Amino acid sequence: MKTPDHAVRQFPTGTKINPAKNVIFEPSLRIIEKGIISRKARIMDPNKEVFLEQVQIHKRIIYKICHAYCKAGCDIEDLAQEIIYQLWKSFDHYNSNLKFSTWMYRIALNVAISYYRNTKKFKAHVNEPVHLLELADETGDGEAMEANITMLQQFINELKELDRALMILYLEENSYSEIADIIGISETNVATKISRIKEKLKQRFNTQNP
Amino acid sequence: MEDLELKQMWQAYDQKLDRLLVLNLRNFEELQTQKASAKINGFVRQQLVYIIIGVIWVAFLAILVFNTPGNLWFAVSLGGIILFSAYATILYIRHVLMLRQINFNGNITETQEQLAAVRASLNQVGRVLWLQTVFYCTWFINPTMYQNITGMTITFGIAAVFLAASIWMYQALAPKNMHRKWVRNFETSVGGKAIVEASEFLQEIEAFKQENN
Q1: Tens digits of pLDDT across chain B (213 residues)
Q2: Residue-level pLDDT at A125
Q3: CB-facing half-sphere around the CA of B148: CA atoms within 13 A
Q4: CA B183 vs CA A117, B133, B175, B200: distances in Å
Q5: Where are the beta strands (DSSP E) in A63-200?
Q6: Which of A103, A125, A193 sits opposite B105 (nearest CB)?
């Protein structure tokens, strides 16, 4: 199977990969050896190549959404797989007039909210771990910034599902018009709600860090 | 804590992910294989089981009616049960069709509203099935019982109570009453937790769409 060059990740000095998770080729090879994937399917089609390239570019968005919608003990990997699979299933209907990120936000957030509300539904599907998304360990990050990021994630995770989607889209620098389009409410409503959520977040930060 | 600081924090998070996040797309083929072999999700599978049970139950009752000619009470009672059971089965089929039509490309409030509406509409099945209870009080009546006035009075009395109670339950379990604690508790106790949650989420979405909320 041909893999795009950009899929091969080079790690900067100072980062560590969890050795327990670094066994990513084994399951795929096993399945190919068993002949479950046909020879034809192993040849990358151009449509899939474009799709995988886009997913690779937007992988951080996928991770952030997964992190925001995983309940305690939930598997980020599992949700990421479901999102990527749903994106692929819908890719044939992707309208190129729409920005890829806008289209992706819609599907990813819809899948994530559904997953959040009905975790068991997707969990039952997974036969064995695939390990698509992995976050390497890192040493030497600023402790204060790390603590702030964790706190921000925690506050966002405490918001209601739809408010959480709004806030992620806002922090990802989407315009109010784009957010309104993705969420399905008016721009005025987006502005009002974001302003209220930000106020809440600021209050939470000020309480935690007086 | 200023607006800019929030965004700076988010950017720092983004940069951290840029350095450390690995997406192993080499495993994408395997993901496709796994997901394709598990096409039907749990909710749809549950609906399909109900559809199969419904069809078998309706067929069984129809065979009973067909093979027991000459008893009007039996035929009418089972006919009533068949009608309600068939209606419930049709609703389950409708749920599966509705789920298949939901498009995850759609905007979030619309898509989530559709998903929640399918789950919440399961409530309609439960409500309708309550209405058939009266027929379970009448199927055994036959002409030889007409002479027993006391027995007939008790039988019709019980049937009337069941009829009144089932109509009352049908009205009480309406979606508009889902805010009542006993209705929520009742639904949850009979396995309808998903229905309660879906109804609450529908209300939440509706409130979210209002500009003054």
Answers
A1: 567 788 888 888 888 888 888 877 777 777 777 776 665 667 788 889 999 999 999 999 999 999 988 888 999 999 999 999 999 999 989 988 888 888 888 899 999 998 888 888 888 888 888 999 999 999 988 888 888 889 899 999 999 999 999 999 999 988 888 888 888 888 877 667 778 888 888 888 988 988 765
A2: 43
A3: 10
A4: 21, 19, 10, 13
A5: 133-135, 137-138
A6: A103
A152 touches chain B (CB under 8 A): yes
**What does the block give as tokens for A5?**
């060059």
Closest chain A CA to residue B40: A125
Chain B nearest-CA residue for A184:
B107
Distance CA A143, CA B21 (A): 19
- B5 phi, psi to nearest 5 deg: -65, -40
The answer to whether A152 contacts B31, with C-beta atoms less than 8 Å apart, is no
**What gap in Å lies between CA A91 and CA A104, rounded to an integer?**
10
* pLDDT one-digit tens code per residue, A70-123: 876 567 888 888 899 889 888 888 887 888 888 999 999 999 998 888 765 444
**Strand A15-16 relative to strand A137-138: parallel, antiparallel, unpaired?**
antiparallel
Q: Does B112 touch chain A (CB under 8 A)?
A: yes
**Contact between A152 and B9 (Cβ < 8 Å):** yes
HEC states along B149-178?
A: HHHHHHHHHHHHHHHHHHHHHHHHCCHHHC
Interface of A with B in 67-126 (CB under 8 A): 81, 84-86, 88, 90, 93-94, 103, 106-107, 109-111, 113-114, 117-118, 120-122, 124-126
Question: Is-above-0.95 flag for pTM?
Answer: no
**CA B22 – CA A59 distance, rounded (Å):** 8
How far apart CA B209 and CA A194 sit, in angstroms, is 13
B123 inside 8 A of chain A by CB:
no
A205 contacts on B by Cβ (under 8 Å): 1
Query: What ipTM goes with this model?
Result: 0.76
Task: Decide: residue A31, CB within 10 A, 0-12 exposed, 13-18 middle, 19+ buried.
Answer: middle
Cβ of A55 and B25 within 8 Å? yes
